[in-house]
Amino acid sequence: MGEDFRKMFERGMNAETPEEEVTFFRKCLQLEPDNVYALNNLGIALYELGRFEEAEECINKALDLSPDYADAWYNKGILLSDAGRYEDSIRCFEKVVEQSDDAAAWNNMGFSYFQIGESRKAVECYKKAISIDDGHVTAWYNLGLAYYESGKYEEAAESFKKARDISESVDTLINLGVAYGKLRKYEEAMECFKRALQIEPTNSSANYNKIVLERLMGREG
């Protein structure tokens, strides 16, 4: 790796916009056309700009040159998942975790399984992600969604609670409230919806669920 390349690569890594990144990493590739790191980062920048075909082409070239390049497999998995090619994305994330237990890869693999209706496998992936990183809020949240979809409302509530405790968000509070509702824990559910509305007073989902719950509590006394 020459000095000119190194300086250009650093400029790409420190760029403030994807457009600038594309410029700098293309210049890197003019200096070293087969540099897998420049190809991978150019692919990421193109992906951020919505230029998916070009992004996939760059990442595929990086993988042709370096078939065990875990970061490129991960990025390809993200790209394919966003394109709705979930089964293909799963194979990419499998390539990542074959090399190292990566919580993000396990979480994204779980998301892809969930999208194709494989809730059981999704749960396994999310649990694996959490075993690696207990503070992975997205994995806890996704685990809650998978449990809820499977009708396991107690487990769903526990997962949403963990996500809330790590990083409180409106979506997590609403889903926790809905799970509590399924468990007939109406007071706890109401607290969730009210808290969500404190954070985002105009949130229509929180407001709707709060109104429905108020009516339900009124009927059941």
β-sheet strand percentage: under 5%
The percent of residues in helical segments reads: over 70%
Number of domains: 3
Q: Determine the number of helices (DSSP H or I, runs of at least 4 residues).
A: 13
Specify the CATH homologous superfamily of the largest domain: Tetratricopeptide repeat domain
Instruction: Identify the CATH architecture of the largest domain.
Output: Alpha Horseshoe
So what's the oligomer here? single chain
- Look at the structure and give the CATH class of the largest domain: Mainly Alpha
**CATH topology type of the largest domain:** Serine Threonine Protein Phosphatase 5, Tetratricopeptide repeat
Terminal residue distance: 73 Å
Features of this protein?
221 residues, mainly alpha, Serine Threonine Protein Phosphatase 5, Tetratricopeptide repeat, 3 domains, 13 helices, 80% helix
